[in-house]
Amino acid sequence: MLNLVLFGPPGAGKGTQSHKLIEKYGLIHLSTGDLLRSEIAQGTALGLEAKKLMDDGKLVPDEVVIGMISHKLDTNRDAKGFIFDGFPRTVAQAEALDALLESKNVHISSMIALEVDDEELERRLLLRGRDSGRPDDANPDVIRKRIKEYNDKTTPVATFYKNQNKFTSVNGIGSKEEIFDSIEAVTEAL
Ligand code: B4P
Question: Residues lining ligand 1, judged by CB closer than 6 Å?
Answer without folding.
Answer: 8, 10-16, 32-33, 36, 53-54, 59-60, 65, 86-87, 89, 93, 124, 128, 136, 146, 176, 179
